[in-house]
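Lecture 7 notes: from sequence to structure.
We start with the chain below.
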Amino acid sequence: MTKTISLIVAGIAATALTVGPALAEKIEKIADKNVTAGGKTYEISNSRTKVTIAGKPSNRDGLKVGLDCKFTGAPGAEASAVDCK
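Predicted structure tokens for the same chain:
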């Protein structure tokens, strides 16, 4: 019984490792509060969205076309975080 549970747990761990984080996408367009990257549009709030650029805190005014960014949140909705390089 414990061997079966161990195999199941190992299978879940292996699945979690293969999913990984979202890949960075280049910002293509910025219009007011909306940012388009990788064909997906996100709303960026100055107060609720955590924006970092090169590891330093910023706001949406620091976002520029061409930056490689990782967005946390669903496309078409407000992003909770944006991490750019």
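Points to note: DSSP finds one helix and seven strands in the chain. The beta strands are 25-31, 34-37, 40-43, 50-53, 56-58, 68-72, 81-84.
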